[in-house]
């Protein structure tokens, strides 16, 4: 898969659309079936999902394209937000051990963007 500017832009847009849908699902369905602490985990996942979807869009518009930053943002969304979504749906707290790996991917993505994107 080639992480061209066009691909990264579209991935960011589709990811943001998915984030909106996941957020709406949480607000309407998760709220009624899970305890408050799980709802907060879901909301944190959605928040960071949306922030890094916008980061993908921004990365596609950087003066110099950084495929590495884009890849790291996508991995971060999957691991960080995905683990929080899975934790909330299953109530399996062990899934929370994956979340920091996604957070590190976000940090590495921002550093890669700073180095390669200008």
Mean pLDDT, nearest integer?
Answer: 95
Number of strands: 0
Strand-and-helix sequence, N→C?
HHHH
State Rg: 15 Å
Structural class: mainly alpha
Using the alpha-carbon principal axes, give the shape. Answer: elongated
Percentage beta strand: under 5%
Ranges where pLDDT stays below 50 over 5 or more residues in a row are none
Q: Which sheet architecture does the biggest sheet show?
A: none
Indicate the percent of residues in helices.
over 70%
- N-C termini distance: 23 Å
Describe this structure in words.
The mean pLDDT is 95. The protein is mainly alpha-helical. The longest helix has 29 residues, at 5-33. The two termini are 23 Å apart. It is elongated. 34% of the residues are buried. The protein has helices at 5-33, 36-60, 67-90, 99-116.
Q: Which characteristics define this entry?
A:
mainly alpha; 118 residues; 0% strand
Layout of SSEs?
Elements: H1 5-33, H2 36-60, H3 67-90, H4 99-116
Helix pairs in contact: 1-2, 2-3, 3-4
Compose a concise summary of this entry.
The chain has helices at about 5-35, 35-60, 65-90, 100-115.
């Amino acid at each position: 898969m080639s992480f061209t500017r066009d691909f990264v832009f579209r991935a960011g847009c589709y990811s943001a659309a998915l984030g909106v849908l996941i957020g709406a699902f949480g607000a309407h369905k998760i709220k009624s079936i899970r305890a408050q602490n799980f709802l907060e985990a879901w909301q944190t996942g959605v928040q960071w999902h949306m922030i890094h979807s916008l980061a993908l869009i921004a990365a596609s518009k950087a003066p110099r394209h950084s495929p590495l930053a884009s890849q790291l943002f996508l991995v971060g969304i999957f691991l960080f937000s995905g683990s929080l979504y899975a934790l909330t749906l299953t109530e399996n707290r062990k899934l929370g051990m994956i979340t920091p790996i996604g957070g590190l991917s976000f940090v590495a993505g921002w550093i890669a963007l700073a180095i390669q994107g200008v």
